[in-house]
Amino acid sequence: MAVESGPRVAPAADARRVRGRGPRAGQKPGRLRRALSTYWYAWAMVAPVVVVIGVIVGYPLVRGMYLSTTNANEANVERTIGVNHIPATYESVGLDNYKAILDDGVFWDRLTWTVVWTVSCVALSFVLGLVLANMLNRKLKGRSFYRMALILPWAVPAFVSVFTWRLLFNEKKGLLNAILEGGGFDAIPWLNDPTWAKLSVIAVNVWLGVPFMLVAMLGGLQSIPGELYEAAEMDGASPWQRFRYVTLPGLRSVATTVVLISAIWTFNMFPVIFLLTRGGPGDATEILVTYAYRLSFVVSPRDFAGSAAWGVLILLLLSLFAVVYRRALRKQGEVW
Predict the structure, then answer these.
(1) Nearest Cα to Cα of residue 307 among 63, 64, 60
(2) Chain CA centroid to CA 15, Å
(3) CA distances (Å), 105 to each of 96, 100, 102, 110, 274, in order?
(4) pLDDT tens digits, residue range 83-111?
(5) How far apart are CA 121 and CA 263, in angstroms?
(6) Between 83 and 309, whose confidence is greater?
(7) For the purposes of burial, counting CB atoms within 10 Å of the CB of 204, is it exposed (0-12), middle (13-18) or buried (19 or more)?
(8) φ, ψ at 253 (rounded to 5°)
(9) pTM here?
(10) What is the pLDDT of residues 269-299, one digit of tens each?
C-alpha cells in the first residue's frame, strides 16, 4: 500500500516557518553572521584585545559615568581604615553635578583657556613641522643628522623634557634668564607671571609636538610623486605655486589625520601643565583635565563625583569635535 507522505511534509515545513524555526526560502544570513563566518579568524585574533580594552577602559568609563550622577566624595565612599570597613553612603543626585559645573564660571574659564592652548599648540606644531619637513625632504648635507636631532625630543620621556625646561625657566638660576641678564636685559618671571606662564607651557608643548608633525609630514611629502613637481615646473609654476597646488593637496589626507590626533592629545595634555606649572601661577594655566585631577586628588575632601562629571564633559567635548571634524572632511571629499 502506498504511503502518502508529501501532503504531510509540506504543512510541517510551513508550520516551522510560521513558528520562526528554520530558514525561510530564499532568506540570506544576516550581516553579522556573514561577517563572523567570513572573518572568524580575524575576530578570534581581535577578541583578546577587545576584552582587555573593555576591562581597562570600558569599566572605568562606565564607573565614572555612574559616579558623576552621585554625590560621592572622600567622606562617603566605601573604604577600609585598619580593621574597620566603612560602607558607602553616597546617593544619586541625577544631573545636579553637570548643572552645577555648567552654571559655574570656572568651567567656562578653563574651557576657554583649554581651547586657546589646544589651537595654539596644534597650529604652531603643524606649521613648524611642515616647514622642517619641506627642508629635510630636499637633498641637504648632513640631512640624516638633522633628522635625528629634530626627532630627539620625541624620543625623550615627556616628564624628563618638562623637568629640563622647568630648570631652564627658573627665574633666578635658569639658563634663559642668565642669557638675558648677560645681554643687559631684565630677568623674565617665566613661570610666575600668568602671561609668561601661558607662553611657556605653549612653547614646551610645541617643542614636544613638532617631531610628531615632522615625521608625519615628511612621510606625506615622500609619498607625493615627483612627476607632479616636474610637470608643474615645466608649466612655469613658481615655488609657491608648486607648494600650494601640489604639496598641500598631496598632504591633505595626512594633515587631516595628524591634526585630529594632535588636537585630542593636546586637549588632554596633562604632564606639561601639571609638571611645569601645576596649573599656576594661581590657576592661570589650569586646563580641564588638570582641574578634574585637582578635584579628585588635591582638594579636601576629594570630590570624586565632581571630577567624574568633569571627565564625562571632556569626553563629550572631544567626541563632538571629532564628529564635526569628520563631517567637515566629508564635505571636502575626504574619506575618514
Answers:
(1) 64
(2) 55
(3) 16, 10, 8, 9, 22
(4) 888 888 899 999 999 999 999 999 999 99
(5) 8
(6) 309
(7) buried
(8) -65, -40
(9) 0.81
(10) 999 999 999 998 988 999 999 999 999 998 8
Q: In degrees, to the nearest 5, what angle opens at C-alpha 163 toward C-alphas 159 and 167?
A: 170
Which single residue is written with the C-alpha cell 574659564?
109
Grid coordinates given for 327: 563631517
